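Box 3.1 A note on notation
Throughout this textbook, protein chains are presented in two layers. The first layer is the amino acid sequence; the second is a token string describing backbone geometry. Keep the layers aligned when reading.
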Amino acid sequence: MSRALARLLLGALIAAAVLGAAQAAERVATAIVFAVDVSGSVNDERYELQRAGIAAVFADEGVEPLLEGGLAVALIEWSDEPSVALPWTILRSPADAHALGTRIHDMPRITGFSTGLSVALLAAADLLDACPCAATNRIIDLSGDGPNNGPISTPIARDQVVARGFRINGLPIVTEAEPGLAEWYQANVVGGPGGFIEVAHGFEDFARAMRRKFRLEVATLDRAPAP
């Protein structure tokens, strides 16, 4: 078989696979990527506070109304570069959500040093595009304790992500080291219609801020699954 014909056949197979995946996509109201900072400033204690705060969102007994229409969830941990810590999981019942909370609580940590926030935004957008679902609302939920020091300008990355039809909500963790972080997130990270920030005043406040932000961002959306 010639190389040209082989490439043609491979292209046809890939196109068929993509078409099949699109046709089989599960319809949900919302798909959300949690993008969590695990850079060098996040020690083990701070990491546990973040992980426990996200897990608690799904362990909450009041989570059921937020699952109406279906909720697809994935989680990225980011530092020098992003890594998918939790692949896409679709939730339709409290049992689904509680099981996910347990998985988040038990997942191993990914380590790093730099605060590559802009690269994490772009990776989260790619992950949303790869969701095996058709979602009415597509959200990136990015949290961290410092401004970007990655290789790409944060506003440029944000604008590219918003242009792809995604909304970015931010959860800045404000500490003595970064007292102006909330303002920086508002100016550089948040994007898309309805995008907002919820401030955590230190890592000890992360669980409260995450719970409030999650409820605000999900409860106020169109809950009908994608047509």
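Residues 26-219 form a domain with the Rossmann fold fold (CATH 3.40.50.410). Strands lie at 26-37, 71-78, 82-91, 133-144, 167-174, 200-201.
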